[in-house]
């Protein structure tokens, strides 16, 4: 069955069937359709993703039922992982931004958990620009917001997903500015929550914080080539000056001795 789904000759037919699911009257069918797209994205061409998959996901992401909208989050994440076309990625990034910023989703706990879970999965594989300019700053905001969550169950759900996300992203190359401005603030907020909801992980988060602080505070290597060159120049310059002076003095001594010798020779033949 899986091989038939992955067969390119069946993609058009499968997408047509899935579109029927997108516009189905049952919210459960529409939600299931969104989840199926997550699997399908890995096997179809980018042209089909652009022309058929992303439009279908955007339609589902504006569904009246919040459960249907949430079902699209993992699929959008899979698009980020598997697509390189700028136009497609921009549409997906815009949809993620809508999920994060629209006041309609402000209290949608399930959506936030799904978003963090998706960022944890796709962050290490996404383009650095998306990870650095969107994922890391947004995770820091989520971590800070979670500090003020009074519902302990929700606080724990978000904290554990944040821990998974930060653990995954800690393996990526992150520049010092981002570490200072996004990674460390988010981790410090997470440590505060872990002390309350998962004390057994607080020390692990603290260790990760210490590692990143060390990276930021580590002294940069000196430009030894410049120092060495200057030292060599100074030594060779001084040596050259000394050698020059010594040689001039030697030549002067030889000249003086030569003059003295000629005078002595001349005096031998001088008549008394």
SSE arrangement:
Elements: H1 2-6, H2 11-22, H3 27-40, H4 46-61, H5 66-71, H6 73-82, H7 86-101, H8 109-122, H9 128-146, H10 152-169, H11 176-197, H12 199-217, H13 224-268
Note down, in words, how this protein is organized.
By secondary structure, the chain is mainly α. The protein is 79% helix and 0% strand. The protein is globular. The termini are far apart.
SSE order: HHHHHHHHHHHHH
For the record, give the distance between the C-alpha atoms at the N and C termini, rounded to a whole number. Answer: 132 Å
Domains (count): 2
Let me know the number of strands: 0
The major beta sheet can be summarized as: none
Protein name: LisH domain and HEAT repeat-containing protein KIAA1468 homolog
Organism: Lingula anatina (Brachiopod)
InterPro entries: ARM-like, ARM-type_fold, HEAT_type_2, RELCH
GO cellular component, one term: recycling endosome
Give keywords:
272 residues; mainly alpha; 13 helices; 79% helix; disordered C terminus
Explain briefly what this protein structure is:
With 272 residues, the chain is mainly alpha-helical. 79% of the residues lie in helices and 0% in strands.
């Amino acid at each position: 069955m899986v091989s038939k789904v992955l067969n390119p000759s069946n993609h058009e037919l499968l997408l047509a069937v899935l579109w029927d699911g997108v516009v189905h009257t049952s919210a459960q069918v529409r939600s299931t359709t969104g989840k199926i797209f997550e699997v399908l994205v890995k096997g179809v061409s980018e042209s089909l993703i652009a022309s058929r998959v992303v439009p279908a996901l955007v339609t589902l992401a504006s569904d009246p039922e919040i459960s249907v909208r949430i079902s699209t989050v993992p699929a959008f994440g899979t698009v980020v992982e598997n697509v390189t076309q700028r136009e497609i990625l921009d549409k997906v990034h815009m949809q993620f931004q809508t999920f994060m910023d629209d006041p309609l989703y402000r209290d949608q706990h399930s959506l936030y958990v799904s978003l963090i879970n998706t960022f944890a999965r796709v962050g290490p594989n996404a383009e650095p620009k998306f990870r650095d300019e969107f994922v890391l700053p947004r995770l820091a905001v989520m971590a800070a917001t979670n500090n003020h969550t009074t519902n302990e169950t929700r606080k724990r759900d978000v904290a554990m997903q944040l821990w998974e996300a930060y653990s995954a992203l800690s393996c990526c190359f992150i520049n010092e500015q981002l570490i200072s401005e996004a990674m460390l603030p988010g981790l410090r907020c997470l440590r505060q929550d872990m002390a309350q909801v998962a004390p057994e992980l607080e020390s692990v988060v603290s260790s990760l914080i210490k590692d990143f602080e060390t990276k930021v505070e580590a002294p940069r290597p000196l430009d030894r080539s410049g120092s060495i060159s200057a030292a060599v120049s100074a030594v060779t310059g001084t040596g050259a000056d000394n050698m020059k002076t010594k040689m001039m003095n030697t030549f002067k001594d030889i000249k003086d001795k030569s003059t003295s010798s000629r005078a002595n020779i001349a005096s031998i033949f001088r008549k008394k």
